[in-house]
Structures are given as C-alpha cells and as structure tokens.
Amino acid sequence: MARICFVAYRGNMNCGGQGVYLWFLSRALAERGFEIDVFVGPPYPDPMPFARKVHHLPNQELWGKWFSRDYAGMLPAGRPLGIFHPLNFYELAASRLGFLPEPFAFSMRALAAVAAQARAGDRWDLVHDVQCLGYGLLGVRALGLPVVTTVHHPLTVDRRASFIRDTNLTEAVGTMQFYPVGMQSFVARRIERVLTSSETSAREITRDFHMPASRVVNVRNGIDTDLYSPDPGVEKNEDELLCVGRAADPNKGIKTLIQALARTPARLRLTLVDNDHPGNEVFKWAREAGVTDRLRVTGRVPNDELVHLYRRASLVVVPSRYEGFGLPAVEAMACGTPVVACRAGALPEVMGLAEGGVLVERDDPEDLARGIMSLADRPETRARLAILGREQVVTHFSWTHIAGATAEVYAEVLGERRGRPTSTITSASSGAARASRSSP
C-alpha cells in the first residue's frame, strides 16, 4: 500500500477549512490502507492516531501577531535572537510590508524537514500539499517525489473580493501585495495535479493559474456525515431561518439576505452565525431594513452548537455571490434541513447533486424572499427535501467517497511515473483501488 506524505501550513480545525480537510481526508485514506505521515504547522491538529508520524513544524506565527499587534510575542521565547533566523526574519519583514508570509516560509520548512527524514530513511510514494503551494514544494519534487495539492478555490477569488471591500488606493495596493497569487500559480503549473472541490473551482484554477485543464481534478469536498446528521429529538422551529456566513465578506451576500428578510412575513426570524461585534455591518443593514428585532447574531459557535442550529432551523439560506463549494449548504442538508441558495459559483452544482433545496437568482432580494417563502409555507415539501438531501449528501460528499476519488488521482499520478524509479519511491503502484466518480 502506498505511503503518503501530507504537508499543511495550518493544521487545526478551528483555523480554517484546511485543518478539517487534512484531518478527515487523512483518516479516511488510512482506513483504506494508506500509510500517512504529516508535516504540519501551527495551530496544530487534534491528535491523529491513524497517522504513522505527525511532524510539528513550529514557527513564530508572526503574521497573526503583527495583525493583532502582539509585538511583545514576536520574539522567540528564551532566545530572542532567533528572530534573525532567515525564515523568521523573512516572516517578520513580510508581515511588516503587508505580505502573507506563511505559505512560502512553511514550504521551505517542510522541504528541510522532508529532506531530513528522507536522509534518515523515511520513504514516501507521493506528497499531498494542502493549500500552500509555496516554492519549497518544487524542492520536494526535485527529491524525486510526485506532488499533488488541494486548492478549494484560487486566491484570485479572495483577492477580487478584497478589492470590492477596498475604499482607497492604499487599500487596493495592500490587496495586491497580500495575496501570493504569483507564487501559487507558478508552483501549480509545475506539479503533477491540482485537486479541487467543484467544476466551478476547476475552471477558475485553470484560467487564473494558466494551467492545463487535464491536470486540475474535481474530487469534491467532504463532510463528517456522522456529526452532521439529523436528530429526530430536536424539534424544528418553523419560523427560524439560519445563515452561516461573514457579513464582512462581500461574496457571502448577507446584505441581500437582510433585504430579503424584510420582504418576508414578520413571523420569520433569522439566526446568523457570524461575528457579533457591534461594528459588524449586518446590524446597520438590519436597522436600515427595519428587521433588527428579527435578527440574532450568534458570534462564533462550537461544532456541536452549529449542528444543533442546523437541526433546529426550518430552512438554511445561502445567499452567496460566489462559493467554490458551499460547505454550509452541504452541512445543512446532511442535518436534514432544506436549503435556499443562489445560482452562484459552485452552488448550482452542489445543489444539483444533493437535491435538498431550491435555487434563486444572485443579488436579488425579491427572488430570495420568494425562494424562502416557497418552502417556509410548505412543510410537506420541506420534509421531502430533507430526506432526499440527506441521502444524496451521504452518497456524494462523505469522506469515504472523497478518499476514493483522491486515491484514484494518486493511482493515476503514480502510474504515470512507472519506469521512472527514484531513491524516494517505495512501490511501483499506489495499491489503491480506483474509486468510481459520478459526473457532476
């Protein structure tokens, strides 16, 4: 069976989707018989007993400390001169100049660590990067290891959203500096495969990274269908709408949702999982729309509370202007709650597979309100969609399914390298059965 080396610059589930993806995909692959080693940066993942080895690659987390103005915490504890280590100093300087330094710095640390372990006798068949795409991966590839990466959507999408938020030239220049699009596209064009979570993202990666479509593969994204599941013991609140999204991100369409809420009957209430700071613009939009008393903003919630909210809501609304996948929609349907989503990004693709809700036009409060009412007033329809959505999510988006599709890509990559043995390849075959994938 193949031995896979994962590299991920952030590993904790609470620090972003890459941590969730790393933990669940590596576990599902281990269950299929793959041997898993992990090289990961802070915040570190939860224990991974299914992995053969987990190597923690520390850094000073300087970008986060600079952003939060934790200047005192920037010096390495007990060895302040450690700040002058080349990568530490690079991260400090890049943070000060407005660049995101983590992907490059982590990739160089990962290269050094992988090379050291290879010299010590460790061997892998393939390296799987999780959303880093730093230059160090090209060094890993030069060791003789094929490299694949997962990119849920290209950073060009985040950069375009940032430009929408920018209010002056200085902010726009900062946006141009911050995102390492050039590095990521350069590396993506030189590795074996880019895995992504939707056909929409695949097209955008192909276009924005200027790479052949044949090397970008949609394996979809997964969710924990045991955690995100219906509970007959949780009573539905017939008048509660739920949305999971940040008002600060223009792509999430929260302003359109608030405007749509004002066009629905007063009995309907909206629970928004978002930052509950008084400065959140959603409160201003609610005042302008006259729905302040119909809005509750939860602040950050733990996973078990989020699952409870999904189960309790009558409907989940995903008013996004863009989604590379649409995780809240899939999580909601896995919990047996129908979804009203916009025809934007990958949402039509995901909703078409799951069949657990309805689609409305993007940026259209009137159509969004109509979509909400088309289900809010029809409990029988909601019950039918709840059953269908749950069944289809388990079929298409369980981690078992995603691991099978990923194993197929591994087999393709390793098959291409047969006849090109190197000192770091331990087997000629991935040993993984090719997973069947249905077309979106």
Helix-strand category: alpha/beta
Count of DSSP helices? 17
Residues in helix, %: 40-55%
Side-by-side strand order of the widest sheet: 3-2-1-4-5-6-7
Structural Rg: 23 Å
Relative strand content:
5-15%
Question: Would you state the CATH class of the largest domain?
Answer: Alpha Beta
Question: How would you describe what is shown here?
Answer:
- The chain is an alpha/beta fold.
- It folds into two domains: 3-222 and 401-416, Rossmann fold; 237-397, 3-Layer(aba) Sandwich (Rossmann fold), CATH 3.40.50.
- Helices cover 43% and strands 14% of the residues.
- It has helices spanning 17-31, 62-67, 86-97, 102-119, 136-142, 155-165, 169-178, 181-188, 199-208, 254-261, 281-289, 303-312, 327-334, 347-354, 365-376, 379-397, 399-416; strands at 3-8, 35-40, 53-56, 126-130, 147-150, 193-196, 216-218, 237-244, 269-273, 295-297, 313-318, 339-342, 357-360.
- It is globular.
